[in-house]
Amino acid sequence: DTAREQEGCVPVTVKKIGRYQIERVLGIGAMGAVYLARDETLDRPVAIKIPKFPRGSGDEVIQRFYREARSAAAITHPNICAIYDVGEDDGTPYIAMQYVEGHSLADYVNSYRQPQEQVAIVVRKIALAMHEAHRYQLVHRDLKPDNVMIDHRGEPVVMDFGLARRSDQEDVRITREGAISGSPAYMSPEQLDGKVA
Question: What separation, in Å, do the N-terminal and C-terminal C-alpha atoms of the chain show?
Answer without folding.
Answer: 26
